[in-house]
Amino acid sequence: MQTCEFVQCKDFPCIDVDKTMYIVPEVEVTPEKIQMVMISEAAPRNQSDYYYQGKGSLFEQTTLQAFREAGIEADSLSRLVDRGVYFTTAIKCGKKGYIVKSATLKSCSMLLEKELSLFPNVKVIMLMGDFAIKAVNIIAKRQIGKNVIPSGSTYKIRGKEYYWGNIRLFPSYLQAGQAYFIEQSKRIMIKEDLGKGLKILGWTS
What we know:
Elements: E1 17-18, E2 36-43, H1 58-69, H2 77-83, E3 85-95, H3 102-116, E4 124-128, H4 130-144, H5 154-157, E5 162-164, E6 167-172, H6 179-182, H7 184-201
Parallel strand pairs: 2-3, 2-4, 4-6
Antiparallel strand pairs: 1-3, 5-6
Helix pairs in contact: 3-4
């Protein structure tokens, strides 16, 4: 299965993103095998930097580095997908500016909600960045009438236990993109958060 066959934006209503940068994962995946979903913020400005685009992809480089620092060696994201990890973004188009409007997050959350519904055996969702956290809260509010992650800075809310049904949620920092190599303090926190998620899957002790 390829997610892009089931998750599609047809009318592109958002005005603060660039629809020419729209992308949804095209990787082959067995839905029942997926146990962890890692959601980053938005599609990159250059589609060659997106997940699953090969070793030259910036998202792939920084994500593989994050996994290495958390104790998991892999030479490609496809190998991690084979082991049960799926990678996507909360916003399917590239951002025009630093932030996006709440209406954009609400619209994109409909796509993300459909995407998450494809994977029945997810145990862990890694929320990498503010937009990922907000998008999942929007979905949860539609489904159960309340947020699953409290408001506040990531520094203050991370490290606590949050659940969405039986799924453990980890609010953390953005691992996809050049900032990952620059912000050393956040890399340490990403390592800690990802390590806890991987421990739930039984990948680390």
